[in-house]
């Protein structure tokens, strides 16, 4: 049985994962509008992953005798300026999510809930992958800068990154 404190902390994480999914969906749509299909598909896939992270938490809370709550979300912005800025935001957002997972793990130790602690290790591993991927992409985008030809090639190459990241994502 989850403690009230941990139930609340897990529900806060449900909201963070849901908000992440919305932010990445907005990034996908923005990229699609700019005609960069590879980047758009990458962000659509990221959005789907965040929804999966959210669902996994919802099911866990309910299975452990808690009540998962679906909250209202703030609308994400729908203009990201440049691709460099957008991928910078992606990395910053993932660092924020990693911090929130770390806090959550901390609460499990305070509450001596080792089952939830164990469950959250999947998220800890996932965040290492997500941050590494975001850093890798940002490094490439920073090299390209504002070069249109470079961006065109990157848009093609990111399809491969999308396929590889799906292959290395920890399985349920
Ligand atoms: Fe669910 Fe990208 O963190």
Describe this structure in words.
By secondary structure, the chain is mainly α. It has one domain (4-168): Ferritin, core subunit, four-helix bundle (Ferritin), CATH 1.20.1260.10. Helix content is 80%, strand content 0%. The protein is built from five helices and no strands. It has helices at residues 4-33, 37-63, 83-110, 114-144, 148-168. α1 (4-33) packs antiparallel against α3. The radius of gyration is 17 Å and the shape is elongated. The model has no long low-confidence stretch (mean pLDDT 94). This is Ferritin. Keywords: Cytoplasm, Iron, Iron storage, Metal-binding, Oxidoreductase. Pfam families: Ferritin. Fe cation binds at residues 17, 50, 53, 94, 127. Its main location: cytoplasm.
Helix fraction, binned, reads: over 70%
State the shape: elongated
The CATH architecture = Up-down Bundle
Strand content: under 5%
Which cofactors or ions or other ligands sit in this model?
MU-OXO-diiron
Distance between the termini: 22 Å
Derived from helix and strand composition plus strand pairing, the structural class reads mainly alpha
The CATH superfamily is identified as: Ferritin, core subunit, four-helix bundle
Individual helix count: 5
| CA-atom Rg in angstroms | 17 Å
- The average pLDDT is 94
Largest sheet: none
The number of E-state strands comes to 0
